[in-house]
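Input sequence (216 aa), recorded before submission:
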Amino acid sequence: MTALQDQLDEITANTRRLVQAERLAVGERAVEELFHSGIERKILPVGAQAPEFTLNDAAGKPVRSADLLALAPLVIKFFRGRWCPYCMTELEAWRDVYGRLRECGALLVAISPQVERQSDFMIGQHMLPFPVLSDPGCRVAGQFGLAYTVPEYHREYYRSILVNIPFVNGDESWRLPIPATYGVDREGKIVYAEAHADFRVRPEPEEVLAAACAFL
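Predicted structure, token format:
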């Protein structure tokens, strides 16, 4: 099985071959500024209590974190949206190991600011077996320390490549989460936390799975 990061690096390499240097520079600037904002240091760390949340799934049904944790420990994946190829590659990798995560006795949910209809399309297209929850305005992502507002110059870039984030998210806030992976035990304590300002970097599901089976 090809490592997730190798797959993501291939997306990056293909993008750099196909996209003009001055356009690539816009994204690089945004990543650098986000990193230097210190957002990675502000995320909820291991040992903190995870905020409780209630979010709608792709069918519009409310899902409560307390109900999930009553059943099993929880892996939470925060992602940007179905328009992000890095996010979809990562979620497909989690799809492929989800059976093993369930064998460990844990559950997985994926959370993004996109509206339920977008999540429904995504689940069908990518055959995802776990719930995909909508977090309007990145309210819950903000509680985990992950949310930021896309700067105006980067909004122009997204518009130029026909990524309509306000349409996908159902609001004009331009709020997104940095991609993050959390492990939460049944008492609601965070036992694994990893997030990156650079959206092209994600933890290996195999690594998280090994940790999950140990600490969950």
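Checked by second reader. The CA atoms of residues 59 and 116 lie 7 Å apart.
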